[in-house]
Amino acid sequence: MNPSTNHAPLQLRLSQEQVTAFLHDAFPAEVRAKLGTVDMLSLNHLRMRLDPDESMLRSGGIVSGPTLMGLVDVAAYAIIAAHHGPEAMAVTNALNINFLRSCKFQTIFADARLLKLGRRLATVDVRIWQDSKDDIIAQSTVGYALPQQSTPSSPKNCRPEN
């Protein structure tokens, strides 16, 4: 799957270590362990790994939906950073998730791939799985709004002065 882009060909702008450092700086220390870790990074593919703790369980001993949605959002944020550059002001503008089966209390993986990386918007496909990549637990499409990159000639404030 080749993502469409509005500019230069898709390329990694950060290494796995740089993405990890970016996430470390972007989120408060007290929540970092609940967000997962970057397990693998290659062109248009990032894998996050999450080892759930008891606070992530819901009744029935399964991992909660909000935990999975958080993992999806962080995986999307991370793959965008890896290909767009470390932009802390990128924000989620849409997140649609389909839960296909229950998530057991064991290691969870989230595979993120860019569908589109534009100048202002990015769209990411994220698939959550555990035992086998073929047995998807949840599939999500995530949209991110990217901040407008300022150039020396672009105005900082687009509103007319009074």
Report on the structure:
- This protein has 162 residues and is α+β, with helices and mostly antiparallel strands.
- It is 22% helix and 35% strand.
- The chain has 3 helices and 9 strands, in the order E-H-H-E-E-E-E-H-E-E-E-E.
- Strands 1, 2, 3, 6, 7, 8 and 9 form a 7-stranded mixed sheet that branches.
- The longest helix is centred in the middle third of the chain and has 20 residues, at 65-84.
- It is globular, with a radius of gyration of 17 Å.
Summarize this, please?
The protein is an alpha+beta fold and 162 residues long. It has helices at residues 16-26, 29-32, 65-84, and strands at residues 4-5, 37-42, 45-50, 57-58, 62-63, 91-99, 108-117, 121-129, 136-145.
Key traits:
two-stranded antiparallel ribbon; disordered C terminus; alpha+beta
Write the layout of secondary structure elements.
Elements: E1 4-5, H1 16-26, H2 29-32, E2 37-42, E3 45-50, E4 57-58, E5 62-63, H3 65-84, E6 91-99, E7 108-117, E8 121-129, E9 136-145
| Strand percent estimate | 25-35%
Shape: globular
Radius of gyration: 17 Å
- Please provide the count of β strands: 9
Can you give the mean pLDDT? 89
Termini separation (Å)?
49 Å
* H/E topology pattern: EHHEEEEHEEEE
Alpha-beta classification: alpha+beta
Largest sheet: 7 strands, mixed
Number of helices: 3
State the share of residues found in helices, binned by percent.
10-25%
Q: List low-confidence stretches.
A: 151-162
